Fold:
Amino acid sequence: MGALFCDKMFNMNDFDYLSEGEVYLDGACQSLRPRPVIDAINSYYTEHNSCGERVKYKWGVATDEKVEEARELVLKFVKLPARKYNVSFTLNTTYGINLILNQLEAKNFDKVITSEIEHNSPFLATMAFSERTGLPREVMTRNDDGSIDIANYDFTRAIVVINCVSNFDGRKLLNIKEIVKAVHKAGGMIIIDAAQAMAHSADIVRGIEADVICFSAHKMYAPSLGVIVWNNDLLEKLTDGFLGGGMVDDVQKDSYLLSAEGKEHRYTRFEPGLQAWGEIVGLGAAIKWLNKVPKEAWRNLESNMQELYDFLSGSNKVHIVNTTATSTMSFYVEGLDSHLLGNALSREDIMARTGYFCVHYYLDHVLGLPPLMRFSLGLHNRPEDIAKVKKIMEKIIY
Structure:
């Protein structure tokens, strides 16, 4: 794969494993991993393959240093203070949201609220929470630009679980600051699903003092991993419900002392058992890589987004859900089954997702749309990728 732009910090050859003509358009599911991330994971397995926070030999010391660095890099990336926030690692965003909700004490709240454009992760998790606790559940309407009319809702003692970037059209929670402020003023708490934000729209959550921010590393050029960024005050609202090794300082016959009860190891509260040390090391490498992406690379992504959006929205046969160009665009072609379209594109080495993208309620039952095709771009995409997609799509459509 030829270099589009190259400097000491960033190189398009970081994705040189893509074969000539392969076009990957499924970054909203999981992004490709650049070479520095792959190298970091390989380094863990070949140079210091060890358990973190358990061993004293030199491999373990090296792992501990890398894992601690990753926690620090996450907080710096979202611009939240270490004195108020902790970082815990888990499987993915879905697991993180469920892990939090399943341990919250219902007595502290009057209701749970989510929105209509949510991924099934928070949508189903809030259903389960409501059924388990008996607390009412509300579903908010989102505007076309992703914002919420705050005045229409009562956040008194509410748990609000909501995304800041949609996974089917990239619309953003534009008034996220006002919502967080309104929820806290009403005595509620807010959990942000930032899975789709961290790769290309991290600015929307930077400095936002939500109670919890959950995201998936595998959508931000890192290995398969979940991340929970949480405010220290969260512990006061929880009951112990998911326990295991790595979380305790001492255990008696009928009692235990959690490490999270101290100040230094609060993050263990959501880290039962052995962690994915290699993936955590890879996340640290991915954040370093993202921090070094030059403006030219971001401009290339924006140009690709706009060109593809203009092409899709310019055809009478293409019905696109998006109202603006984003890195994630969903649509269907009139008279053509999206799954068949996906298969046709696959035969041309164009890889994209079809279906409802785990947003069944909104896309199917609110909008009444047929299964869709989703193009989700990334920093690995070149202008020639977009040119190929347009050429193949024109042949299929016309």
